[in-house]
């Protein structure tokens, strides 16, 4: 079954074609990684998928339902979630309260202002579960501004799971992290259930080749290659255009 279907999707900014006739599908539970040089259209594609920007042409389907013109909050209710390259956290609140606020935003009582969120035991239990997934429960009472950058990225990933999404869009989840921190993010993504479909924008080749079941390469707003990590690693055009290396040399981080 297809979780996402994209048909001839295009986005123009004046005379600039950020995306041109992009088409692909994503199967339920698949891990698809999108790579490409700066300006290739990767973030624009994500913005169209989750509704931050409107498409100039083409269609987007989510579990068979067209969502091309659907608002962000409606897509979220259908099961889309996104984490951003720059973490959207409350730095002056604790790790636990960030998790609780994310969970409260998914609940019917989110607009009830006269009852403390600490009154909801089920939310605390779910917060503990989410923070446990990313090994941050022991940091629950620390202010977010005081935890390491890698830990903030793990928290951002945990918060994106608060709505129990069907589709998770991850924008450069290992950006700025050490190799060890990036490896932790890769392990977390590996451990997500197959009921969650994952699309990832990545410059980190360890992430791309360590997580992906399939890779799409964008260049100047168009798909120039698509296939398994092994097929992408062996693709001479990808090596020349994206990797900037001569044919015959290995793709860095792809071993």
Summarize the structure.
Helices cover 33% and strands 25% of the residues. It has 9 helices and 10 strands. Strands 6-7-8-3-9-10 form a 6-stranded mixed sheet, sandwiched between helices.
What would your notes on this structure say?
Helix content is 33%, strand content 25%. With 255 residues, the chain is of the alpha/beta class. It folds into two domains: 1-79 and 165-255, Rossmann fold, CATH 3.40.50.300; 88-164, no CATH class. It has a six-stranded mixed β-sheet with strand order 6-7-8-3-9-10, with helices on both faces. Strands 2-1-4-5 form a four-stranded antiparallel β-sheet, covered by helices on one side. A hairpin with a 2-residue loop joins strand 1 and strand 2 (16-27). Mean pLDDT is 88; it is low at 245-255.
What are the SSEs and their pairings?
Layout: E1 2-13, E2 16-27, E3 31-35, H1 42-50, E4 57-62, E5 65-66, H2 72-78, E6 80-83, H3 95-104, H4 121-133, H5 149-160, E7 167-171, H6 179-191, E8 197-201, H7 205-211, E9 214-219, E10 222-227, H8 229-234, H9 236-243
Parallel strand pairs: 3-8, 3-9, 6-7, 7-8
Antiparallel strand pairs: 1-2, 1-4, 4-5, 9-10
Helix pairs in contact: 3-4, 3-5, 6-7
| Total strand segments | 10
Under CATH, the topology of the largest domain can be stated as Rossmann fold
- Alpha carbon gap, first and last residue: 31 Å
Q: Which spans of ≥5 residues are poorly predicted at pLDDT below 50?
A: 245-255
